[in-house]
Amino acid sequence: MKSPETPEDDTLRLAKLRSLLILDSGADVRFDRLTQMARRIFKVPISMISLVDENRQWFQSLDGLTVPESASSVAFYGHTINASDVFIIEDAHEDERFADHALVVNDPHIRFYAGCPLILDHHKLGILYIADQSPGTLDQEQIETLKNLASLVVQEFAAILLATKDELTGLENRRGFLALAQQSLQLCTRQGLPVSLLSLDLGDFKLNSCNQNPQDWNQNLITFAELLQHVCRDSDVVARLGSDEFVVLLINSTREQSENVILRIKKALMHENNLAGNLHDVNFCYGITAYQPERHETIAELLADGDTLMHEIKQLRRQAL
User: Fold this and answer.
1) Separation CA 125–CA 14 (nearest Å)
2) Number of C-alpha atoms within 13 angstroms, CB side, residue 257?
3) Helices 174-191 & 299-320, crossing angle to 10 degrees?
């Protein structure tokens, strides 16, 4: 097995990697969503996001494999981190650099591999890769798709640095949603996948809970956020935009499928409302805005239509009272 060379900017690269504070952290749905998306798009059994430090690669997200880390000096990933573009191995059995690699000789018996460096501020921090037990390759369009997925991972790294999380619930805030959802929207546009925006408003809960203390109010918002994360898929983008405003960008979801998501949210919320002391009978109104490529060039435009729809819905609700 041929070991890769150490990157020339390794000291600066490692400093940027450590600034993310995610090495040896727990599972993160933001990255798991992207590895799952990669598996579905390329129809492969394995997809991972790995970060490479001085002497190992640490897996930020694994889909299809269960190893926590491996030595970077003897792995596919050490070669990929030095690549200027997507690094492809069509058949590892026929490549002297990897023919005796543990993951080739033993389970999961990798034959095909394609990895894209994750570059933030000109530093290669890690790799997004896909793998299969059968030989394969990627055409130019597929290479671009893998690059687009890698850019989503880098967006997540940048989001971490920009503190785009809602402090109370841990969901994306407005800035984080716009950045992450825009990338997802562009990818779905290229793949021709339907997208829907769910707008959820807990205004009724706020009105009915005016006597609650702030801690009760905050706890109910946290519980509702957890409920959304449980009901929605890892590939969806869930955010809290304001005090009582939540949104979900549903990937590969038609209007009918989005209505089913609403039903699942209501069912889960009913269960929570029936638990003693939980959520104080929270209710919500909602709107579903279908993504139209000819109308919504950006996620901001889709979100604006969602805001308009919710304003109209809330006006009608107030008139009915």
Assistant:
1) 7
2) 15
3) 110
CB-based burial label for 26 (10 Å; 0-12, 13-18, 19+): exposed
pLDDT in tens, 126-185: 899 999 999 999 999 999 999 999 999 999 898 887 777 888 998 988 888 887 788 788
d(CA 24, CA 19): 13
Tokens of 109: 């018996």
CB atoms within 10 A of CB 299: 23
40-64 confidence digits (pLDDT tens): 999 999 999 988 777 777 888 988 8
- Do 220 and 205 meet the contact criterion of CB atoms below 8 Å apart? yes
Q: What is the 3-state secondary structure (H, E, C) of 137-151?
A: CCCHHHHHHHHHHHH
Number of H helices, E strands in the chain: 10, 10
For the segment 268-273, the average pLDDT, to the nearest whole number, is 82
For residue 278, count CB atoms less than 10 angstroms from its CB and return exposed for 0-12, middle for 13-18, buried for 19 or more: middle
Strands 195-201 and 112-120: unpaired
Instruction: Give me the amino acid identity at 312.
Output: E
**Global pTM?**
0.59
